[in-house]
Amino acid sequence: MRLTLAYAATFLSLLVPATLTAQETLIIDAHAPTTPFPHFWEKTFGSGRAILSLRDDYRKDLDTVHDATNFESVRFHGIFNDEVGLYDPDRQVKNPGLAAEAIQSDTVYNFSYIDHIYDGLLARHIRPFVELSFMPKKMSSNPDAVHAFWYHPNVAPPKDYKLWDAMITAFAKHLIDRYGIDEVSTWYFEVWNEPNLDFWGGRPNQPTYFELYDHTARALKTVSPSIIVGGPSTAQAAWVPDFLAHTHQANVPVDFVSTHVYGNDTADNVLHTNENVPRDQMVFRSVEKVHNEILKSPYPKIPLIFSEYNASYANEPNVTDTVYMGPWLANTIRQCDGLTQAMSYWSFSDVFEEQGVVRTPFYGGFGVIAEDDIPKPAFNAFAMLHRLGDQRLPIASNPEDALATRTADGALAIALWNYAPPFGEGSTYTPPPTNLGPSKTITLKLKGVSPTAAAELWQLDADHGNVVKAFDAMGRPATPSRQQILELQAAGKLPAPQHLHLTNNALTVTLPPQGLAVLTIQ
Fold it and tell me: Is position 131 annotated as part of the catalytic site?
């Protein structure tokens, strides 16, 4: 969601002969002691701004991703944007049938679109992850302080915190009146978005954001102490120690910590070190950093939510549109297990307008569903990894390219991957090279299962579940025809699994570079 920066890529794998295949053997005991493996990577998804949730294509994509992952909540910017219509003191809602003295004093608030937005989510069994942003212009201390996003949200502090406090109070009361406190007390309320960047116009930005947080958290808790509120919702894993020190010293309510990171963020910005952290390591390094900061804080057990993450914060078609996302996502899950309560992938759909109206289906958008309901490889990766169980099994060699789990019905679900860096970076798409690196052959030796147990194998790679291959074959049309869209929708679907059997408790899988496989074994 942030503007592009150059990021150095490693192309050493391109020098490896295509015929070379790495060999690996993994030993897994189906009855070994397990550790909990909650699906923290798919609890929440980000999306385009609030008003887009009223669109039919947004809701279709929401249903598609929910069916594949059963995710719990969705987070978006702009619930207070003027286009949603909540606050307008010059356009009061008056009932002509009432006497003037009977008109309610809170009629500067219009909850009509907010109700449509949240009703639409809840009807799909999806809760809002409520990001409280941005500033209504008629409440803003600077109506001209607009962000560069295409829809130009106002990012200034309020001109009077009494107005902000009253709006937050009315907003919370309305939600409880409409949905009930039992429901609303399960929602997460996050104060603002990335105040350490240009999404916040207060200066100096940290103390003025803390003032915003204090007012917001106290107003929410005054309505109901059961409301869950947190922050600082920073970019680049920033401010967490300062934020928790402030809330502790000022005795301000805080129920969770939230922050963001992307795979192409730099070590200088995130870790404050002078090193080149690869794209497949940056999210983990950031999660680990904040996890350790929390342990040293006055709130060592407070939940940590990375409310935005992805492999790129820019539009990089060779990254977020391609099968690269399969191994990247699987490896990120492996590394971050046990360090965070939830991570919100940015985003579930390319119904998204931060850089303007979408012009073409594959431009490096953040969503796992491209324009016109076309599933990307990232969608297939999420669908495959959703099959993993909720108990993690150890693997004898502790490999960096595998996850073993046990499902609720006692089956094994194993993810295997062959990570290779993107074959191109930046906003211009690069066709895949003939040689991206070596294939990898992994032999699984399984204990505690039938020697000839049945298995199912799902695959995502250049030749499986890869709509970009079909798009390339079409010549990458900027505006595909209706027939081409149907062909792309079909090409993006994950193929049916292969049905296999173990041989003497063993099974061998060969993965091409940037390949992901998920096995289930009864």
Answer: no
Strand pairing class (391-393; 35-36): antiparallel
Q: Which H, E and C letters describe 38-91, residue by residue?
A: CCHHHCEEECCCHHHHHCHHHHHHHHHHHHHHCCCEEEECCCCCHHHCCECCCC
* Structural domains counted in the chain: 1
CATH of the domain at 412: 3.20.20.80
Residue 332 CB-half CA count within 13 A:
32
Within a domain: 1: no
Position 19 in a domain: yes
- Domain extent for 215: 12-521
* 348 contacts 46 by C-beta, under 8 angstroms: yes
What is this structure's pTM?
0.93
As a whole number of angstroms, the distance between CA 143 and CA 158 comes to: 10
- Peptide bond connecting 76 to the previous residue in cis, omega within 30 degrees of 0: no
**Token reading at 409:** 């019905």
150-154, Cβ contacts within 8 angstroms, sequence gap of 24 or more: 150/353, 150/354, 150/355, 150/356, 150/357, 151/49, 151/78, 151/81, 151/83, 151/353, 151/354, 153/49, 153/77, 153/78, 153/81, 153/199, 154/82
332-362 burial, b at 16+ Cβ within 10 Å, e below that, comes to bbbbbbebbebbbbbbbbbbbebbeebeebb
Residue 177, token pair as written in the block: 């009146």
One-letter amino acid at 371 equals: E
* Segment (H or E) for 375: strand 374-375
Please indicate, yes or no, if residue 3 is contained in any of the structural domains: no
d(CA 225, CA 172): 11
Q: Walk along the chain (522 residues) in steps of 10 and give the mean pLDDT of each run.
A: 39 43 93 97 98 98 98 98 95 57 62 98 98 98 96 98 98 98 98 98 98 98 98 98 98 98 97 96 98 98 98 97 98 98 98 94 97 97 98 95 96 97 92 90 96 97 97 96 98 97 97 98 92
Give the integer Cα–Cα distance in Å for 236 and 105: 42
Active-site residue (options: 42, 190, 194, 354): 194
Backbone φ, ψ for residue 281 (5° rounding): -115, -20
CA distance 392 to 375: 28
Domain annotation covers residue 346: yes
